[in-house]
Amino acid sequence: MSLHPGPRLLLADEPTTALDVTTQAEVMAILDGLRRQSGLAMLFITHDLELAAAICDRTAVMYAGQIVEVRGSSLLHSDPLHPYTAALAAARPDITQTTHRLRAIPGRPLSAFEAPAGECAFAPRCTHAGDVCRAAVPDLVGLDGGGVSLRPCARASRPASGSNRWLRAPARRSSR
Which terminus of the chain, N or C, has fewer Cβ atoms within 10 Å? Predict the structure, then answer.
């Protein structure tokens, strides 16, 4: 880690990866103290959505090199809109259930170089993908509350009434 003599941004790229919980807390306390003491903004890059929800004001979720959703961290954590964000949330372990089976996201992750052209990069793995997902490269669109999500994702336009209907089993698709 290094610091410029007068930075305005602290870039923390996976600073807690492979650390035990105690050491992770110590590192986060140091970063937070440095941020507060120096009045810095912090760009925190992580694969840990729980940690991001705990320390970040806003969270951006990426898939295959594309941002698929950006929202306030607590809102993104409690009510994800994009199917990938929802699938990540559903794959988290639930410590209140001892026999809870984790939900896996079908298929394998794609690199940015493997993402299909002309469609949503998550469409091949998405249990909710429809024709609109495979017909156009989605754009980021603004959402109520200042967040963004991909369009034409059907989730981005679902009612924001707290419904989590996308986390339930999807309707069966007709075979062609």
Answer: C
Contact 126, 155 (CB under 8 A): no
In the predicted model, residues of the chain with pLDDT beneath 70 are 1-4, 100, 144-147, 150-176
| pLDDT per residue as tens digits for the range 32-59 | 998 899 888 999 999 888 899 888 999 9
Which residue is listed with tokens 């903004």?
Answer: 41
Give the burial string for 58-82 (b: 16+ CB within 10 Å, else e): ebbbebbebebbbbbbebbbebbbb
User: Is the Cα torsion angle 35, 38, 42, 44 positive or negative in sign?
Assistant: negative
Q: Is pTM, for the whole model, over 0.90?
A: no
- DSSP one-letter string for 91-155: TS--TT-SSPPPPPPSS-PPPTTTSPTTS-TTGGG-TT--HHHHHS--EEEE-TTS-EEEES-GG
Q: Which helix (H) or strand (E) holds 172?
A: none
